[in-house]
Amino acid sequence: MGRITLDKVAKRFGEVEVIPPLDLTIEEGEFVVFVGPSGCGKSTLLRLIAGLEDVSGGQIRIDGKDATETPPAKRGLAMVFQSYALYPHMSVRKNIAFPLKMAGMPEDEQKRRIDNAAKVLNLTDYIDRRPGQLSGGQRQRVAIGRAIVREPAAFLFDEPLSNLDAALRVGMRLEITELHARLKTTMIYVTHDQVEAMTMADKIVVLRAGHIEQVGSPLELYRTPRNLFVAGFIGSPKMNLIEGSEASKHGCKTIGIRPEHISVSATEGMWKGRVGVSEHLGSDTFFYVHDTGLADDMTVRVPGEVELKAGDDVYLTPDMEKMHRFDDSGLRLS
Amino acid sequence: MSTQHSRSAARLMISPSVILLLAWMIIPLSLTLYFSFLRYNLLMPGANPFVGFENYTYFLTDPAFFSALTNTLVLVGGVLIITIVGGVLLALLLDQPMWGQGIVRILVIAPFFVMPTVSALVWKNMFMNPVNGLFAYMAKFLGLQPFDFLAHAPLASIILIVSWQWLPFATLILLTAMQSLDSERMEAAEMDGAGPLARFFYMVVPHLSRAITVVILIQTIFLLSVFAEILVTTNGGPGTSSTNLTYLVYAQSLLNFDVGGGSAGGVVAIILANIVAIFLMRMIGKNLDA
Predict the structure, then answer these.
(1) Which residues cross the membrane (chain B) (predicted)?
(2) How far apart (Å, rounded) are the C-alpha atoms in residues B205 and B207?
């Protein structure tokens, strides 16, 4: 249960082609994250899979069966929305029971499943409250509860954490990952936050303007980005991209070096610059280095605490092993 | 802004308007109360002696009173049912994306701008007239006997006319409420397996409950005092079959020239309106809390 295949699926809104025909296979039990900047079509793609939008071409198969024309309720998928989309006039219990009631399930089976979901998600204490009386994280759990009681073939998450504060987001991220480890159900997760993508996914699908830029595990994307877009999108802080004479020395149009692959010295090194802003996180220190003659700003990440003041001269040395090279069309040269 | 000084200054500043509004309410009310205890008939000038509850006894034992009371309740209830059911259905229709939506919405609101006397006369003469009316014409076209609405179903006809006037109001309020329904919530319900009917009853109706409450409260206030429509169509007749309380008070004081009796009727109407208000607030007022 839970293998989803997209075969030349396309979506047009009138004249505008939001998603040009694309192929993608999501294996059973996989945690797949669609990631990309806003407006890249990732939510639309999820809604196509859910059946909330009609495809303009191609075929969607769920477990081998053609589901392109199947109405959303019959696809056996459950969705968690960005706004949670809870039913405000129903208690938590009734919210979770709603899909079961619509399916005409017997009362005692409903009760068993709801109690089970409430226990898994720690909802038992406020099962009789209304959504309006819950905090953001609790509402999120209710929305997930409403999805899991249906025992769907796959879960679809549409940016579920973007309405939560930073601390809660980290906690919920962990909870969803643990839920996946326990249920082993296919999950498709849409986000614009590459940190969420890197931490949660088995497989990341990077999208830009409806195109799939690269598909792979988080570390594959980190180590071998297929093109400049993926290189710039995956990794935090962003990769430094250098063009011009320094790049031609390496026989390419652009070279990329991640901030964590540059070593810093106050006395000697390959590139000389001047320290601008520095961000001290304790575990790491980020420097923004100006006047290197390479790029506007070079970002450097140094583990631990390093005392360098703004305006100090600094020497940077890249780790040649971990340098990425890209050709004129932005594709990776291995 | 909330120091002791500024608060007392604020009270001082608003006091003229509060006092004016209070006087505006209290003077007619107390005069009505005063008249209701007098024998005060315009055909018998001279002394207006104090008669205690005599006017009330006459008004409440008048056979027209009970028919007026039931007519009032039937009128209010009938119009409420028609406007709310119709309003919800119309709002559902108007909420669908369509070409010329703006113009259609303005057309739907239009009847609300027609003053009651005019719309009642239009209905009486152009639609319901048994000789020249559109309905009579249609009946004759189908080979049927034209139906004299205002003579044979006077109260139903008035309910129809008043509903036509208030339907736009209900539609407008319910449409705005419907537009605030979160589309993700409807999609979630769709994914949860709710069909169109289930979505309507489990999502749309609960979402509209507060707007429906507002419509019921506001319309009840105005429908208890329907008058112009009755005056220009049936004059409360035939007999008292389309007389409501407002019209009965009018008939008592201005057709029978009995100011005392009319005032007593007015006081009775105030009390009844308050009873209705208490029942309404008990039944549906809880929908207005947060």
Answers:
(1) 12-35, 73-94, 106-123, 155-177, 211-232, 264-284
(2) 5
Contact B192 A89 (CB under 8 A): no
Q: Do A82 and B191 touch (CB under 8 A)?
A: no
Nearest to A188 by CA among A317, A11, A34, A1: A34
Residues B206, B236: Cα–Cα separation, whole Å: 39
Nearest CA in chain B to A103: B193
Predicted TM-score (pTM) of this structure: 0.78
User: Phi and psi dihedrals of A248, rounded to 5?
Assistant: -65, -25
- Alpha-carbon gap: B202 to the closest alpha carbon of chain A (Å): 9
What pLDDT tens digit does each residue of chain A (334 aa) get? 678 888 888 888 888 888 888 899 999 989 999 998 888 888 889 999 988 888 888 889 988 888 888 888 888 889 998 888 889 888 999 999 999 988 888 989 899 999 888 888 888 888 889 988 888 888 888 998 998 888 888 999 998 888 888 888 888 889 899 989 988 899 999 998 888 899 999 999 999 988 899 999 999 999 999 999 999 888 888 898 888 888 888 888 888 999 999 988 888 888 888 888 888 888 888 889 887 777 778 899 988 877 788 888 888 888 888 889 888 888 888 7
User: Counting Cβ atoms within 10 Å, is residue A11 exposed (0-12), middle (13-18) or buried (19+)?
Assistant: buried
Nearest CA in chain B to A72: B191
- Residues A86 and A222 placed together within one structural domain of the fold: yes
Q: In sequence order, which residues have a C-beta less than 8 Å from that of residue B192 and are 6 or more positions away?
A: A73, A98, A99, A102, A146, A150
Q: Based on the fold, state whether residues A258 and A176 are members of the same structural domain.
A: no
CATH of the domain at A75: 3.40.50.300
Same domain for A181 and A251, yes or no, is: no
Identify the helix (H) or strand (E) that includes residue A11. strand A4-13
- Report how far apart, in Å, the C-alpha atoms of A78 and of each of A334, B132, B187 are: 41, 62, 11
- Chain B residues in contact with A81 by the CB 8 A cut-off are 184, 187-188
Domain B53-288 has CATH 1.10.3720.10: yes
Is the C-alpha dihedral spanning B24, B41, B273, B234 positive or negative?
negative
Q: Which residue of chain B comes nearest to A77, CA vs CA?
A: B191
Answer whether B188 sits within 8 Å of A73, measured CB to CB. Answer: no
Q: How far is CA B172 from the centre of its chain?
A: 16
Q: CA of A186 to nearest chain B CA: how many angstroms apart?
A: 17
Q: How far apart are CA A41 and CA A35, in angstroms?
A: 10
